[in-house]
Amino acid sequence: MALFTLGEYRPQQGTALTVGTFDGVHRGHRALLERTAVWAREHNALSVAFVFTQPPPNYMGTPKPLLLPVPSKLERISQIVDHVITVEFPEVGWMEAEEFVKKILVEHLRMMHIVLGPDARFGRDRRGDSALLRQMGSELQFSVEVVPPVTVKQKIISSTAIRESLLAGRLDEAREMLGYVPTLWGTVVHGDGRGRQLGYPTANLALERGVLVPAAGVYAVRVRVKSVQRDGVLYIGSRATFADASPSIEVHLFNTDEELYGLELEVALLQRLRDDQRFESLSALKAQIEADIQAARAALRV
Fold this sequence. Notes:
The chain is of the alpha/beta class. Helix content is about 30%, strand content about 25%. A 6-stranded parallel beta sheet has the order 1-4-3-2-5-6, sandwiched between helices. A 6-stranded antiparallel beta barrel has the order 9-10-13-12-11-14.
């Protein structure tokens, strides 16, 4: 992966750039990245993504949960463009728009062409836009390309819309906007062993910090463990059946009793099966768990 910080990146030829946070690297983001890569190939330039590691609000006290852990985001972006530059927003957020374009994009990064969406804003107080870029481009000799937004059912795809879908449990809607299966990443940690006591051992997950947790409920999932793919069922919820239990995120894998503590799991959410709920007895809970497992098996066979 050709990954650089802003300070260490010194391109040896002209560049085609796109700038943004790219949280989720959804279909709208990929339209920008792919167009940047195409222009660069056609004009013997390097395709470069200028990527803020976190959304700007995350530095201002109003953080947004991430759709992807930062390393996963950067890996996806690097599959499309030649080089990825990682930037912390405070490094450049204080700059006036004109200074940012002239000093950073043109002089430092040798920008020949920039690709952006119609609502893109940059620079101090978000004053920069495509009109300013076109005005500066005629003087500084770079071109500007505005890519129309990508829509699904007449709704513009955005990271915000995807967060809303996941938090509401609308998994299929989120998947259509992302262009891939919504996924969680986490480390297996010790729990209280209640799943094993019920006859359905689970791996308790500590998710990557700052990453969005989808709506509570039960999901049919496909889990990657040490490069091996396994089917299972995921629970996100309060465990209200147990008076002394704390909320948890745990996955039961089918047909295995493998030791998983300390391992990193990648959990692809294929289908949401039901809401979280409280049961009046352990026997009712066990019956529902068995029903969930059968529903998950059926969903994963499709």
